[in-house]
Each structure stands twice: as C-alpha cells, then as structure tokens.
Design brief:
Elements: E1 2-10, H1 15-28, E2 33-38, E3 47-55, E4 68-73, H2 76-82, E5 86-95, H3 102-106, H4 114-123, E6 126-130, H5 132-139, H6 145-155, H7 163-173, H8 176-187
Parallel strand pairs: 1-4, 4-5, 5-6
Antiparallel strand pairs: 1-3, 2-3
Helix pairs in contact: 1-7, 2-4, 6-8, 7-8
Amino acid sequence: MQTNILICGVGGQGIVLASKLIAAASMAKGLHVMSAETIGMAQKGGSVFSFLRVGDEAECPMFCEGSADLLIAFEPAEAVRMLPYLKKGGKAVVNSHPIMPVTASLKASSYTGDEMIAYLKENVESLTVLDADSLCKELGSPKVLNMIMLGNAVRSGALPLDIDEIENAIKKTVKPQFAELNSKALRHE
C-alpha cells in the first residue's frame, strides 16, 4: 500500500519540518518513504510544497496530478493551486487563514481567502477546514501552525501514522526546549 501526501503553504509556515516529521515517523515505523520539497522563494513568502510517498511501491518522491491521497494546505490559495494533485475521493486538511500574496498587496487588492475556501468546499469531497492560526493563538505561539495542521491530518485518517508516532518523531527531531509545545499543538483539537 502506498500513500501520496502533498503539503503546501508559504515560506515560514513550517512545511519542511512537517514533511520531515512524517518521513521520520514513517521510517521509525518501518515504512519506506521518499520526499522532495520545492522551497523557491520561501523566505520571501513564496510557495512551498512537499511531496511525500509512504509505502513499498514508492520509487520516486514526485507523483502525478490526481494521485495525492492527502493534501495538507497551510494557506487557502496554495490549497487551490495544488488541488489538481488531489485524487478523486482524497482528503484535504486546510488552514482557513489567508496570507496576502505580495502581488496582491502591491496592487492594494483585498484577499480574504473566503473565495478559495468556497471553491474547495465545492470541489473536495472530504475537506477539513480549520482556523489553525486561532488555535496557535490559544497555545501562545504562531510557530506551532505546522503541528496543528499535522495533528488534524493524522485525525483525518489519511496518514498511515498515529499521533504517538508523530510525537516520537518530534522528540527526536525538534530542539528539546520546543518539543513539549510542539507535542501539545499536535494533540490540540
């Protein structure tokens, strides 16, 4: 069995760490995993996405459009941009909080993300939308967005991992002073 996962968002949201935690937890479980990130202008707020393939049939990290079992989107416009990769019947976990693209801010246009969420609701059968940024505020740190998204992805049932397996990867990967907060965010509902 193979699971294709696509994680997307913008620079600074923790996409690469979320990808590394899925990979580490998969390997610790004895699952074959391959991953590839495209970070481009990540530090400038540009698109970031990570492809992961978990399972014995994984021969390369990239996969075709229409074959992702799970889309984890940290930003609504990025979810729509990467939606062609989600297979029919695939699951999507999307943060509703928008990040204004630089081009939109230069034109003084408004972007609320609402139109993107509406589009996703019309086009994704199994969609979880959450305001992960508000959940970050509840926990007192904007830096745990990735853990909140990852926890919700695990709870969607589309990952071949459970919360404890991801938490073990956090303990081995994240600096000790941040591990407890990250674990708390992972489990936060």
